[in-house]
Design a protein that fits this description.
Blueprint: H1 3-6, H2 9-17, H3 24-35, H4 42-50, H5 58-70, E1 75-78, E2 84-87, E3 94-98, E4 104-107, E5 130-133, H6 136-139
Parallel strand pairs: 3-5
Antiparallel strand pairs: 1-2, 3-4
Helix pairs in contact: 3-5, 4-5
């Protein structure tokens, strides 16, 4: 099955209706990011896709991840290494970054963090939260 076939039909329709071009590279990058939980950098995405797309350039990956992030199709996370990492799952969740091994973990919760009094907020549309600390593996 190709990336085009695996891409959600609602997303394809949304992109097509808005006049945004569905390039093979864009679809492959999005499909790759939706299939991993490792939060790769642009360089990692390039390395992973280069065998499948020999004509792919690193500049194309940078351009497309920036585009996908600006369209809220993927999430950008600034890692402890100073590089931007990407998450293909744009559903609301929290990220945890280990300050020692620099691995990024997803934390799934149905409850919103209680950082502000709810009565001060009229509506929450999105929460961006990154927690920093030591993972269990590094703590040992």
């Amino acid at each position: 099955m190709t990336a085009k076939q695996r891409l959600d039909l609602p997303l394809k329709l949304t992109l097509n209706e808005s006049g945004k071009r569905l390039t093979q590279q864009r679809l492959e990058i999005l499909d790759y990011l939706r299939g991993v939980t490792t939060h790769p950098t642009s360089e990692m995405i390039y390395t992973a896709l280069k065998k499948k797309l020999p004509y792919l350039s690193l500049a194309t990956v940078y351009r497309n991840v920036n585009y996908l992030a600006s369209e809220k199709m993927i999430l950008e996370i600034k890692g402890e290494d100073g590089k931007m990492h990407f998450d293909g799952n744009n559903l609301a969740h929290i990220h945890f970054i280990c300050k020692q091994c620099q691995k990024i973990y997803d934390i799934w919760t149905k409850k919103a963090p209680q950082f502000a009094k709810i009565d001060e907020v009229a509506q929450i549309d999105r929460i961006d939260c990154t927690i920093y600390g030591l993972c269990k593996k590094c703590k040992k």
